[in-house]
Design brief:
alpha/beta, Rossmann fold, 2 domains, 7-stranded mixed β-sheet, 6-stranded mixed β-sheet, 11 helices, 40% helix, globular, disordered N terminus, Peripla_BP_I, membrane, cell membrane, PnrA-like, signal
């Protein structure tokens, strides 16, 4: 049984959702031809929106899995430029009013909006990806130990560099991205003390485009490559595509983030230069929240994914990486030590 009664979908309801959301971001709704007429999971995207080949697309993959399995209507809503917390709250409230459950804000920027919307709709389950501060009774804070996967990315970079210079490009200078940097730098240092890490942030705030500007990512990576970096790791959302483009143009390695970027069609022409990706399974976290609501036992509180749970990991899609026995052995050892607690990965 679902936690709240589902509402029958009608064409008028779908139209009203589109109208309600037109002022605060575009939306798309979908239902299978034999849908039971019930509304389920809705997600509101972070900066960069769908098509970032990273964080937001992973959330959409979770939505698609839930839609297929539970055969209900879903909604996914794009952000708008320069939007406020009030705009985000209106977006979530509109989805909850339409009967979607759960409603997920993708990204830490939704914290205030999720908290406010959850208070107004106590019988709806809300989720927020990458924030642990909401802590409301009907909210699941879906967070990850990104520093652990980033440590493994550091091991891979340290074992793969020939110049002993590697780079880190962060999208926005915030605590969340500091976790990626800290883990990466620690992994490099522990594996190859002779290697130097060049670290750079694209912007101080998300509003300045740090997560949505491939040109900024490309420029930052080119600067690091000029300083002899031959492996560059980006934790920058859509901006990371520019980092990957710069790496390919200069025939050095890029390390992707969040999703397996080697396997993504939009990045196919660069894939020979994508060594690996530090992944977090946002799709699984979003799907699991939807399933918990469908099962009548909604997740709430802090829900963490880490190496032990398998929800953060390092991809092995590139055969050159997967077949490198020395690199794989080092990563396996590091992973085991992190899981056992022998290695404590820093978060800042």
């Amino acid at each position: 049984m679902r936690r709240i009664s589902r509402i029958t979908v009608a064409g008028a309801a779908t139209a009203s959702l589109a109208l309600a959301l037109s002022a605060c971001g575009g939306t798309s709704t979908s239902a299978s031809s034999d849908s039971k007429g019930n509304k389920g999971l809705a997600i509101a995207y972070d900066v960069g929106g769908k098509g970032d080949q990273s964080f937001n697309d992973a959330a959409f993959a979770g939505l698609e899995q839930a839609k297929k399995e539970f055969r209900y209507d879903t909604a996914d809503v794009e952000p708008t430029e320069g939007e406020t917390d009030a705009d985000k709250e209106q977006r979530l409230v509109s989805l909850a009013k339409q009967g979607y459950n759960p409603v997920v804000g993708v990204g830490y920027a939704y914290a205030a909006a999720v908290k406010a919307a959850a208070a107004k709709f106590p019988d709806t389950t809300f989720g927020i990806v990458d924030d642990s501060t909401v802590e409301s009774k009907n909210v699941a804070d879906l967070v990850f130990s990104e520093e652990q996967a980033s440590y493994l990315a550091g091991v891979a970079a340290a074992k793969s560099t020939k110049s002993n210079v590697v780079g880190f490009v962060g999208g926005v200078d915030i605590p969340l991205i500091h976790k990626f940097q800290a883990g990466f730098e620690q992994g490099v240092e522990d594996t190859n003390p002779k290697a130097k890490v060049l670290s750079q942030y694209l912007t101080q705030t998300a509003e300045e485009g740090g997560f949505s500007s491939p040109d900024k990512g490309k420029s930052a990576a080119e600067g690091q490559i000029e300083k002899k970096a031959d492996v560059v790791y980006a934790a920058a959302g859509l901006s990371g595509q520019g980092v990957i483009e710069a790496a390919a143009a200069n025939k050095v390695w890029a390390i992707g983030v969040d999703s397996d970027q080697y396997s993504q069609e939009a990045l196919a022409k660069y894939k020979d230069y994508i060594l690996t990706s530090a992944m977090k399974d946002v799709a699984k976290a979003v799907y699991n929240l939807a399933k918990s609501v469908e099962d009548g036992k909604p997740e709430t509180g802090i829900v963490r994914g880490d190496l032990k749970s398998g929800e953060v990991s390092l991809s092995n899609s590139n055969p050159k990486f997967a077949d490198d026995a020395d690199v794989q052995a080092a990563i396996k050892t590091a992973k085991e030590k992190i899981i056992s607690g022998e290695i404590k990965v820093e978060t800042s």
